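Please, structure for the following, as tokens.
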Amino acid sequence: MGDARRVSLNGEQLSSSERLRHELTTLVFTPDRLAVVKGGPSTRRSYLDRTLGRLFPARAALANDYAAAVGQRNAGLRRVRFGQSSRDALAPWSARVVELGSELVRARAAALEELGPRFAASAAELGLDGGDLAYEGDEPTSAALDARLELDVERGTTSIGPHLHDVRIEASGRDVRAYGSQGEQRIAVLALVLAEADALRARTGRAPLVLLDDVLSELDDSRRRALAEILERTSQTVVTTTSVAAYPSPPAQSLSVANGAVG
């Protein structure tokens, strides 16, 4: 077996990769990130939870804590279904799901408040008007869980809560996932990355490292110019492209890669 992986930053060995993520905030756009728009609700929930963890580090563990509580309640529901436990034993985990679920919904809403106006502004600059982010789901309550208890026992799963919620990504009142073109979906994901970068810069006073991979390939000339103007107002951005001529402004630094060598 080889040596365990070690992480260092500026010559200092770090105790975990989590600390590296905290010290060096990096946001990435790649073609497969289109799943944030095109994929199912779980992909958007995961994206939002990572974002709120970066925006509000004190709440970074909230989504995992909530998921653990739901897992414990689901295990209890299955024990009740098989006659191995009583419904009364579910009460502590139901209360925990309500407590953490409500906190998670509020934290997600706060993250979207930070992102929403910035997303709309970035999307508009890139030619996608009327951009909006809307959270779909309510805080869980004890009454709602009690009302669905028999159904939950029958299925062995908790049927309400933020583990089932979604984020609606809109442009001019249209759901971009259902009614947006491939180009509009691509702009929406790019606008999300730029919005988060701006929000992080505003909250921390430090610009994150933004990596934009193959971002220009499906943008027309006007949108490429708009993107270049946005990036000129930011810092620490790396753009990869198959042709330097595709980027409409002179880059601060240009590196070419050919046959595995950097020139």
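The two ends are 35 Å apart (CA to CA). DSSP finds ten helices and ten strands in the chain.
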